[in-house]
Amino acid sequence: MAEKKEALFSKKNRKLMTDPLDGANPISIQVLGICSALAITVQIEQAFVMSVSVLAVMMFGNVIVSAMRNLIPSRIRIIVQLVVVAALVILVNELLKAFMPDVSEKLSVFVGLIITNCIIMGRLEAFALGNKIWPSLLDGFGNAIGYAWILVAVAFFREVLGSGKIWGFQIIPESFYELGYMNNNMMILPPMALITVALIIWAQRTRNKDLIEEN
Amino acid sequence: MAIDKNSNGYTFSFAIVMVVVVGALLAVASQGLKTRQDKNATDKKMISILSAINVEATRANAQEMYDKYVVDSKIIAGKDLSAEAFDVDIKKEFRDKKLAASDRNYPLYICEKDSIRYYVIPVIGTGLWGPIWGFVALESDYRTIYGATFDHKTETPGLGAEIKYASYSDQYTGEIVADTSGVFQPIVVVKDGSGSGLNAKVDGITGGTITSKGVEEMTTRTLEVYVNYFNTLN
Q1: I want to staple A140 with a disulfide (CB 3.0 to 4.6 A). Which of A59, A77, A79, B25 is the partner?
Q2: Taking 90 as the threshold, does the pLDDT of residue B95 lie above it?
Q3: What is the pLDDT of residue B3?
Q4: Is B14 in contact with A80 (Cβ distance < 8 A)?
């Protein structure tokens, strides 16, 4: 092994974490995980809880698949990935139910959503299966954060405009409502999540012209 | 490498080993954690019952508070009137398609707070994605709702899931479920915003219509049974 040992946070490794925040964002660029971005962005709190859960599952999943990458038969690799993710999610849920029941109640529906989150499967397939453990961990972290900020940003707009609240606290004062201000109920409904994501994509591509596809 | 990873044999062996390992792991986790999970579920049930009479309990003092406020519990109708009310799993009975509606057990929790009696009624129904349930407390006149609390398993956060918050359940407080002669009066969920005030109507949740209607259905179906029971007491 003449190869020089790579630093833990070498430029290449740092890029694994920073790329998914913008230029390779899983939601706005790769358009993955849209389903959960629509479903749970009505309130910031839930978007946040979902993001944390995805972060945990993505990092563990990436590490486990990466550790087994030389053993997994390629013909059933998708099934193996699915089993890894599903088992992790169930395990985490069982532990939460036993030790942190209140958190588990908050997570209720998200558990199913995490398993079906295409970002997780996408990263396992595209990255963890062909890379070492440490870069896979960073990649999982980066992508989860990239997913998280979009989710929280969308939830921010939907919660403020849809219910006048942030993290469940009323921020639009009662006097506004008396003057005739109304919450926009449209924001609460799923179509506005798509439109908000689209607006983020628009802003992102206006700022960074390299992201615009040629056709 | 000696083993051909693309061979059928390897693929099958890998799959079998994986299934056994994952299966065993999950089974052990599930069994090992069951007692704790059951205790948590029991505590949660006590907390919900108490919250219907506006008593705040925590997981730490659930049992103690329950013993303090719940003076009696019984089954008012159903197949097995002698069963322990708290142990009746109304969720399971509701799901059981083979069990006739008249055979379901209807538990009643009698609570006492500041020497006033309240009657806590568990309700169970179906939301959009899965079960919804709750507890409705009646005042000692058997017809005024003192408090209500609802919960759900898988309703959409921000939409149907809003039923579990006070902003929704507080609308039930003060509503009347039976007129003075004991005729049952359902609490309807409306869309037009006319639900405020005490008029046997509550406002549904925007974007959560099916869940709101589920609450209406379960309260109507269940409270009627209890109102009929209370009529026999008078």
Answers
A1: A59
A2: no
A3: 74
A4: yes
The answer to whether the CB of A122 falls within 8 A of the CB of A32 is: yes
pLDDT at residue B14 above 80? Answer: yes
Task: Tell me the mean pLDDT in the region A12-17.
Answer: 84
Chain A residue with minimum CA distance to B22: A87
Prediction ipTM score:
0.73
CA distance B168 to B162: 7
Q: Which residue has the tokens 């971005």?
A: A37
Q: How is residue A96 written in tokens?
A: 């939460």
What whole-number distance in Å separates Cα of residue B70 and Cα of residue A35?
44
The number of beta carbons lying within 10 Å of the beta carbon of residue B194 is: 11
Q: How far apart are CA A42 and CA A24, in angstroms?
A: 25
Cβ distance B157 to A76 less than 8 Å, yes or no, reads no
Assess A187–B contact: CB distance below 8 Å, yes or no. Answer: no
pLDDT tier for residue A27 given thresholds of 50, 70 and 90: confident
- Sorted by where each begins, the domain ranges of chain B are 69-233
Q: How many CA atoms lie within 13 A of B51 on its CB side?
A: 21
